[in-house]
Design goal:
Elements (H helix, E strand, L loop, with lengths): L4 E4 L2 E5 L10 E4 L2 H9 L6 H17 L6 H16 L6 H17 L4 H31 L7 E4 L14 H10 L5 E5 L6 H12 L4 E4 L4 H6 L5 E4 L3 E3 L4 E4 L2 H10 L4 E4 L5 E2 L16 H4 E2 L2 E2 L12 E4 L6 E4 L2 E3 L3 H10 L4
Parallel strand pairs: 4-5, 4-7, 5-6, 7-10, 8-11, 10-15
Antiparallel strand pairs: 1-2, 2-3, 8-9, 9-14, 12-13, 15-16
Helix pairs in contact: 1-2, 2-3, 2-4, 2-5, 3-4, 4-5, 5-6
Bound molecules: 5-S-methyl-1-O-phosphono-5-thio-D-ribulose.
Length: 348
């Protein structure tokens, strides 16, 4: 399996997703501020990977606090978590992981500082290893929906790189392939940052899964031609009613899928579901740097001074989603009911 994130000698190590597929480089972070920068500049990206990185960032923050009184430690540690939480606004897993880190702190707050730090490192490592386990379960659940010789379209990168390993949407594809199903994957290039062309294509090539790269604007034509049997995407945040924020372009795919009777699946761990948000309108959408749109691989493609709108995500209303694949099982409509029921069964 591709090593995307790890914790080594009290340091957080991330594969640098900015330079893939040209180079396989790793960056090492020794402070929580370095991890925040890595999340902001997309060295580490993808909702579950951001959650794991946030856990490691909080652990690094605690490690560097040293000997403090319990009250001071708590105050500083919570302030660090709040700062990490600002790194990116849309992926639910970021706040979810930090809530876990704070809960663990509260359980050990009266221990000596060294023991508190050890417990926080342990919690961050658990978030990491549980994410891989969750993806394997989710992948197995989703593989039931995949038929022999299916042609599957995916958008952005919801693979090992976007998680601690194995992936969500790509986890379903990996699992189905592991069961001996012959599949073909159509990969949307995913403008403006090209997570599909650079990252998903890289992963599929490494795993020897057959794929074809297309530009985002080709997807509708392929559906019309009957070339797509299913669409599977990941998620950055899912509201209590099933509305799903994911990489910009996901909504257009879902609308096209409905028109062409193509099942549209979202694959995500429960940590991506935000039951505190009733519907998609309340999901914060990140606006990113205009240069992502006006420059491709460092070269300007638009006249100087061109105005740009660059939302990194869109929201797909729940009624376009055929099912939500989670580690708890496959959730169906009405999602308000299925999410609530599954949420009650999840350990918090
Ligand atoms: O801006 P990114 O690359 O972090 O956006 C990532 C996505 O939209 C993914 O599809 C989503 O996080 C799911 S990853 C399993």
């Amino acid at each position: 399996m591709i090593k995307t994130i790890s914790w080594k000698n009290n340091k957080a190590v991330f594969i640098d997703q900015r330079v893939l597929p040209a180079a396989e480089k790793y960056i090492t972070c020794t402070s929580y501020k370095q991890v925040i920068a890595a999340i902001k500049n997309l060295t580490v990206r993808g909702a579950p990977a951001i959650g794991v990185a946030a856990g490691f960032a909080a652990a690094l923050g605690a490690l560097n606090l040293g000997e403090l009184t319990p009250d001071k430690f708590r105050q500083k540690f919570f302030a660090i978590c709040d700062e990490i939480n600002q790194a990116r606004p849309t992926a639910r897993n970021l706040a979810w992981a930090l809530e876990r880190m704070k809960r663990r702190f509260t359980l050990v707050r009266n221990f000596p500082p060294l023991k508190i730090t050890a417990a926080l490192i342990d919690e961050a490592k658990r978030i990491y290893s549980e994410d891989i386990e969750t993806n394997r379960k989710l992948g197995k659940n989703g593989a039931r929906l995949i038929a022999q010789r299916d042609n599957i379209l995916t958008h952005c990168n919801a693979g090992a790189l976007a998680t601690a390993g194995y992936g969500t949407a790509l986890g379903v594809i990996r699992s189905a392939k592991g069961q001996g199903k012959k599949l073909h994957v159509y990969v949307d290039e995913t403008r403006p940052v090209l997570q599909g062309a650079r990252l998903t294509a890289w992963e599929l090539k490494k795993e020897k899964i057959s794929f074809t790269l297309i530009t985002d604007n080709m997807a509708g034509f392929l559906m019309r031609q009957g070339k797509i049997d299913k669409i599977i995407v990941g998620a950055d945040r899912i509201a209590a009613n099933g509305d799903t924020a994911n990489k910009i372009g996901t909504y257009s795919l879902a609308v096209l899928a409905k028109e062409h009777n193509v099942p549209f699946y979202v694959a995500a761990p429960f940590s991506t579901i935000d039951v505190s948000i009733k519907s998609g309108e309340k999901i914060p959408i990140e606006q990113r740097n205009p240069l992502e749109v006006t420059r491709v691989q460092g070269r300007n493609i638009a006249p100087k001074g061109t105005k740009v709108y660059n939302p990194a995500f869109d929201v797909t209303p729940a009624n376009y989603i055929t099912a939500i694949i989670t580690e708890q099982g496959i959730l169906k409509k009405p999602y308000t009911v299925s999410i609530k029921r599954a949420h009650q069964g999840v350990k918090h």
